[in-house]
Design brief:
single chain; 316 residues; alpha/beta; nine-stranded mixed β-sheet; 11 helices; 45% helix; disordered C terminus
Length: 316
Amino acid sequence: MAQKVGYIGLGYAGWPLAANLFKGDFDIYVSDADYTRAQEFAKKHGCNAVKAGSDGFKDVDVLITMLPNGDIVRDVLFGKQGIVHSLKKGKSTVVADMSTADAFNSIELAKDLEPFGIDYLDAPITQRKNHETDVGKVTVMIGGNSDAAVEKALPALKTMAKYHFRMGKVGAGHAMKAMNNYILAASICALADSFTVGAKFGLDPGTMLDVLNVGSGRAYATEVNIRDEGLTRRYDSGFQMYLLVKDLAINKHMVEKMGLDSPLPRTVHGLLKDAMDEVGPSVCHTQLLKAWEKWGNVEIKKTPQPPAEYAPLPWD
């Protein structure tokens, strides 16, 4: 019998991720805050659309959530239209949250689901290239207390992922995602600083990236998002400024709670919050270069996307 999989959240990343589920043998149920979007997805892919707050997920074995933040995940489960009471009990349902959320809140959510006999996993994603959500090549970081729950959710998660890593207990996946995005953001800030100083010194930003991408400064920012979306002024990464700033607030909270008195998480969060104030919350995060241009009173030259002639990474 085909495993029944529910999926909530058909946004920019959620829609293509959910579309990958059809590579497996699943009976699929989808929902979104915009029910017409769920209907559109169901019509296109031949699955079941579920209205928010209904009992349409009552028979699912795995329920995947992909939502803007953990508060919304909690509301979907326990809010006024919460569906937790309609889910199968007795370890029959696994909730796998692929959102980016606070690890400590996820631990509490898992505890709150225990009386219902529902297992919880945090399973956020990252990717090596933009839009790998579309082709099932993301990386999933899994936190879970139950090996059986992880094994139950893995068939669905594997349709969306090229790599998956068991990070530890509940919260470990979200902790890793917060640090992943912190490292990304710190490298973007360093790159924006370097472009600004380089422009003042007369360096071409495209050539700067050519050097970085065949040297020790190579990073996701140099190889993918700033190269492909920022310098080209295409601004189509799909990752909005407010989401990056939200993730950095999560990381800052985690660092403080773990007792590390480091100024860098606060600085990176503050810089990108200021940049968001300059360019707006809903724009592609690569538009942050405009803030650095303003602060540095300089123009960072628009550069065509360079050819991908760099040596492949070992795992390619």
